[in-house]
Design a protein that fits this description.
Helix content: over 70%
CATH architecture of the largest domain: Up-down Bundle
Largest sheet: none
Shape: elongated
Number of strands: 0
Radius of gyration: 22 Å
Distance between the termini: 99 Å
Number of domains: 2
Length: about 200
């Protein structure tokens, strides 16, 4: 009898874990597609996909809610981080207020790591805008990256608490500095070209 009772509990936990794993995979796929839509300047599609990701994440969270020992598992944390990244990337690109962890229904550690990943995603968006000649937009997005880094670097907690945030923040710092260098070079080249153009007009 005792073994049967234990088996029933473990069977239920395993079934919940399988449901959660499938939902986490759907969350991560939808988040990746949502971020791509943001970069492709398709905000409506990005929002639809992020909504899909949010629904899948809630399914995973609900499945594991009766089993607290499984809630802190890697897949659920990763899915929550990816969901935060998708929502935060869209907000930063759209110059909208950042949704809080409570608004997204994700843990603080997942939100912080998602913010770091979202800020890194801005590099791609900045480079795309620079290729289009939108220097002021690139400068604005770089300032957003810088603000995110400033927030993250102040979160000095052990990895067990922050979900490995220090490593993610270090990666963001490298991306930020490369992006700053690319933007600086582009701005200087633009100024030089403008000066040459003015000189050419003056000679004519």
């Amino acid at each position: 009898m005792l073994g049967a009772a234990v088996r029933v509990e473990l069977d239920a936990a395993n079934a919940a874990r399988e449901v959660a794993l499938a939902a986490c995979r759907r969350t991560i796929r939808a988040c990746g597609s949502s971020i791509r839509a943001v970069h492709q300047l398709r905000p409506d599609e990005a929002l639809r996909l992020a909504d899909e990701a949010g629904a899948a994440l809630r399914e995973a969270q609900d499945a594991l809610a009766p089993f607290p020992s499984l809630v802190g598992s890697g897949p659920l944390h990763d899915a929550a981080k990816e969901y935060a990244e998708a929502r935060l990337t869209a907000a930063m690109v759209g110059s909208a207020p950042l949704p809080s962890p409570a608004q997204l229904h994700v843990p603080a550690a997942a939100w912080l790591n998602g913010l770091a990943e979202a800020a890194s995603e801005l590099r791609r968006h900045i480079l795309d805008r620079l290729r289009e000649g939108h220097l002021s937009r690139g400068e604005s997005l770089l300032a957003t990256m810088d603000e995110a880094y400033g927030l993250l670097v102040a979160m000095d907690y052990p990895d067990a608490v922050s979900g490995g945030l220090r490593r993610t923040t270090d990666a963001l710092r490298a991306v930020l500095e490369r992006t700053r260098g690319d933007l600086t070079i582009t701005v200087l080249q633009s100024r030089l070209q403008s000066a040459l153009d003015r000189a050419s007009i003056a000679l004519d």
